[in-house]
């Protein structure tokens, strides 16, 4: 054969550069379910099942398009367990003229691919991944000219570059960002939309049995399994989102509600990140709904910003700062991750809800990740690297390039403010305003200290107190430091004592 084309698990895109450079008549595709990839962190069972099933369906799609695909299942005799092992075997067997692969999404794998250039006797072509708007080199050039990196300015460039929601050279509606309208708490609505679900087919049933047998001791519930695993079904999930939930996406983007894990979110990151969905196409569909008058501008803009703004921006930061970014720890936090991140056994109703649904669904929406589990970890001083491994493990959409900057940068401020302008630290009052968790909670959100007080309160002020020298110069935090310093010494002692007692019991 001519080219051996390796397709990685998050490259399930028919227009992938490695495939576009190939010829089904002369080249061979290799895909593999690998022990090393499923266990470098012990991924949630549902995440592994989702990806293996999506990979198997993609292999079928490629075969339908005329490709010869060597698909190595996890239980295939002789499965070598790693990308390198599997490629070495394929090279020995087929003696290709070249190995061709689209660049990897994460540093660890990218290093592996680079290493093959010396390891194998055939040339290795690593092609750019054009499924993103902004290449790592483009981002580096953008970043170089700035003293401070801020998503908002990057986002405006991406709007101009794509023409999304642009009227000529002006943003639609005369404003780039409508977030000020997007901070409403939600009420239970009997007609709350639910993401489209998909019953497992025979391929998924096989994968579910395999995952149950081989990864039964990993975190999370395997069943029920309702994710889409084909491009067509993932696109149907987007269609349903755009008609049913998107109109309210903006207004309730920051809301949290008991028993409503999805609210008005799209629940498509797992499809985007493995390549089943094309991000630009999804954004164009959302813009079309706005232009057709079925979706308000604050919703369409808010949604498109998440994808061409945040998603691209965090990837740019990842490649700009790796390696090393995974060990950033601005606040010097070292506390181990509490057990309740795995068991949900805590009296804090908000944390319990977020962890329970994470276990059941491999999903929590952004505000649960940022303002509940992330915020708690920040206030409690949890080791950011341990927390990073948790987020990478538990979510179906988690890949290091997107998870790490969100955790280390946005959520933990462990990069000292490279990615975000201020730490996302908040007391119980924020959670109370944006959710209905606090009413039935065993803790009292109105009390600052004492055994019945909401732990987020004393921990919040204790965080401000502990780190005041590091945050006092941040214009968005200075007010909080001054407020703390105006508390009577007694109150300051009660805060420290309450926080210490709670942390000692973790
Ligand atoms: P929606 O709320 O409906 O948003 C639409 C889409 O916008 C998402 O599908 C996603 O592709 C994109 N998006 C939204 N916010 C972000 C963001 N901050 N960064 C990148 N893309 C974004 N997202 C991941 O895709 N993978 C991760 O591993 C991941 N880890 C996170 C860890 C932490 C600590 C935090 C605070 C956020 C993380 N996010 C991650 C971002 C965000 O929470 C998820 O993208 C989102 O919850 C996915 O659900 P959804 O598809 O319903 O998104
Ligand atoms: C996340 C993951 C998992 C669980 N399993 C596989 C696998 O078996 N085979 C594979 O090709 N990729 C898998 N992946 C994705 C990779 O770990 C990695 O995230 C991507 O290749 C991006 O570098
Ligand atoms: Fe969470 Fe505090 Fe509200 Fe309980 S009272 S749900 S711990 S914010």
From TrEMBL:
Pfam families the UniProt entry points to: DPRP
Q: Does the keyword Ribonucleoprotein apply?
A: no
Q: Which InterPro entries match?
A: Crypto/Photolyase_FAD-like_sf, PhrB-like, Rossmann-like_a/b/a_fold, UV-DNA_repair_photolyase
Keywords of the record, alphabetical order, are:
Lyase
A GO molecular-function term, please? lyase activity
The protein's matches in SUPFAM superfamilies, at most eight in alphabetical order, are given as: Cryptochrome/photolyase FAD-binding domain
Record's protein name: Cryptochrome/photolyase family protein
């Amino acid at each position: 054969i001519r080219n051996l084309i390796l397709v990685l698990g998050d490259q399930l895109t028919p227009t992938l550069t490695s495939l576009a450079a190939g010829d089904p008549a002369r080249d061979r595709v290799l895909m593999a379910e690998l022990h090393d990839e499923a266990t470098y962190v012990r991924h949630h069972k549902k995440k592994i099942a989702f990806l293996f099933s999506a990979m198997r369906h993609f292999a079928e799609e490629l075969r339908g398009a005329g490709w010869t695909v060597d698909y190595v299942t996890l239980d295939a005799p002789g499965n070598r367990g790693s990308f390198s092992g599997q490629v070495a075997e394929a090279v020995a067997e087929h003696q290709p003229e070249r190995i061709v692969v689209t660049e990897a999404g994460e540093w660890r794998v990218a290093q592996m691919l680079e290493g093959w250039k010396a390891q194998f006797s055939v040339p290795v072509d690593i092609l750019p991944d054009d499924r993103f708007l902004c290449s790592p080199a483009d981002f580096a050039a953008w970043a170089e000219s700035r003293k401070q990196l801020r998503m908002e300015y990057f986002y405006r460039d991406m709007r101009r570059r794509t023409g999304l929601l642009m009227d000529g050279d002006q943003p639609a509606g005369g404003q780039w960002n409508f977030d000020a309208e997007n901070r409403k708490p939600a009420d239970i609505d009997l007609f709350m939309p639910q993401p489209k679900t998909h019953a497992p087919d025979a391929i998924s049933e096989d994968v579910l049995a395999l995952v149950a047998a081989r990864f039964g001791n990993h975190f999370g519930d395997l069943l029920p399994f309702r994710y889409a695993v084909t491009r067509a079904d993932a696109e149907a999930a987007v269609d349903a989102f755009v008609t049913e939930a998107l109109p309210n996406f903006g207004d309730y983007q920051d809301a949290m509600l008991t028993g409503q894990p999805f609210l008005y979110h799209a629940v498509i990151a797992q499809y985007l990140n493995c390549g089943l969905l094309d991000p630009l196409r999804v954004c164009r569909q959302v813009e079309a709904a706005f232009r057709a008058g079925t979706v308000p501008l604050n919703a369409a803009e808010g949604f498109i910003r998440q994808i061409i703004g945040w998603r691209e921006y965090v990837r740019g930061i990842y490649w700009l700062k790796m390696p090393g970014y995974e060990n950033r720890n601005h606040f010097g936090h070292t506390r181990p991750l509490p057990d309740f991140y795995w068991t949900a056994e805590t009296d804090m109703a908000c944390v319990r809800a977020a962890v329970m649904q994470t276990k059941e669904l491999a999903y929590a929406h952004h505000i649960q990740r940022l303002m509940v589990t992330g915020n708690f970890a920040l206030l409690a001083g949890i080791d950011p690297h341990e927390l990073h491994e948790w987020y990478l493990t538990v979510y179906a959409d988690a890949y290091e390039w997107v998870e790490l900057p969100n955790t280390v940068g946005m959520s933990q401020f462990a990069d000292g403010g490279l990615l975000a302008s201020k730490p996302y630290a908040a007391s119980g009052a924020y959670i109370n305003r944006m959710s209905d968790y606090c009413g039935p909670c065993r803790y009292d959100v109105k009390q600052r200290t004492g055994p019945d007080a909401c732990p987020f309160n004393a921990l919040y002020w204790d965080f401000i107190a502990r780190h005041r020298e590091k945050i006092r110069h941040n214009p968005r935090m200075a007010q909080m430091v001054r407020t703390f310093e105006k508390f009577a010494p007694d109150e300051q002692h009660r805060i420290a004592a309450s926080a210490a007692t709670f942390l000692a019991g973790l």
